[in-house]
Amino acid sequence: MAQDMAQDTTQNTTPNTTQDTTQSTAGDIAADLPRDTPRTLQLHGIHVPLVTPFTRTGEIATEALEALAHEVLDGGATGIVALGTTGETACLDEAERDLVTGVCARVCRERGAMLTVGAGAVGTRAAEASLAALARWPQAGAALVTVPSFVRPSAAGVLAHFGRLAEVSPVPLVVYHIPHRTGQPLDAAALRALAALPRVAGVKYSTGSIDQEAVELLGDRPAGFHVLAGDDVYVSPMLAMGASGGILASAHLATERFAQLAASWRAGDAARARTLGHALAGLSAAAFAEPNPAVVKGVLHAQGRIPSPDVRLPLLPASEAAVTGVLERLAALDEPLAGQAPG
Predict the structure, then answer these.
(1) What share of the chain is helix, strand, coil (3-state, %, to 5)?
(2) Where does 87-172 show beta strands of DSSP type E?
């Protein structure tokens, strides 16, 4: 949030000629793109918002990041998300964000996988510039853009914000709806209005519950509009109600099982999906026992998959008890599923 506010301040103090140039560049990019992008993006299934692993001296561990990207794709993930909340984006500098995006883009190019990149800002002009920068990454299939936080615009203001971004973005948008972080709740009618924008491809739905708005949205989901579960604990009921998939931090730890869960609901195998869903909900709850992504990184380090469990301030490393709790859940995960065929 502070970073986004700093970007807005920069925009407000820059001479008008610079602002006009930025807007013109974004407009030129958009002019070469069709306004009605076919919603054929690979936004179904499980997408993993990758952590940003650090070395013991605090630099980005690029080899570990690349390995994680391959591992989750090997496990059945449809795609990866770079620069999400789980990636500690607000704590990275611009060069580090570019480094992370470059690594993820390379892996997705090699694997033919979907890459979504976190972008945007509190202010619309700053968000335009953030999205325009994605033109450097042809592998990016979509941008994950949070509903404006802190300023708390009206629902009409949110719609105008995304309407402007949809006009200038070089890639389709996935609206990140997370009201406990943004302070901006949106009802089903507002989400349908966003879905009607031609370059808005979906929503990451993270309200912290299965609320009435989710029921209404999924009960009459706009054609071609992807609803992605963003709260790991609730992914199974969201899939049962018709969500396309999920963007799930805990899927770092059991990617194959989460992919099987999505496949089971898609195939109509409710009995198997319920068994998987209950087991994975317990795992996810344990993985979020402390602020994300501390526990996930602690477990990945304990598994030898990243060189350190470190997070950047103001986050703190996970407690030993939290990490142990997840490791125990992982060890027990196969027990109730023994003997079932792969999904």
Answers:
(1) 55, 10, 35
(2) 114-119, 140-146
Whole-number Å distance between alpha carbons of 205 and 208: 9
The residue type found at 137 is: W
Could you identify the residue written with the tokens 């619309």? 124
**Catalytically annotated residues:** 176, 204
Q: How far is it, in rounded angstroms, from Cα 155 to Cα 187? A: 9
pTM of structure: 0.86
Cβ-based burial of 126 (10 A; exposed 0-12, middle 13-18, buried ≥19) = buried
Q: How far apart are CA 47 and CA 227, in angstroms?
A: 12
SS3 of residue 115 by DSSP: strand
CA-angle at 277, arms to 272 and 281, nearest 5°: 160
pLDDT in tens, 317-332: 999 999 999 999 999 9
Through-space distance between the first and last CA atoms of the chain, rounded to whole angstroms: 40
| Model pLDDT for residues 19-64, shown as the tens digit of each residue | 333 333 333 333 343 333 434 689 999 999 999 999 999 999 999 9
* Contact between residue 83 and residue 117 where contact means Cβ atoms under 8 Å apart: yes
Give the C-alpha distances (Å, rounded to integers) separating 270 from 261, 267, 333: 10, 8, 18
Which of the 8 DSSP states describes residue 154?
Answer: -
Phi, psi of 243 (to 5 degrees): -60, 150
Q: Where are the alpha helices (DSSP H) in 186-267?
A: 188-195, 212-219, 235-240, 255-267
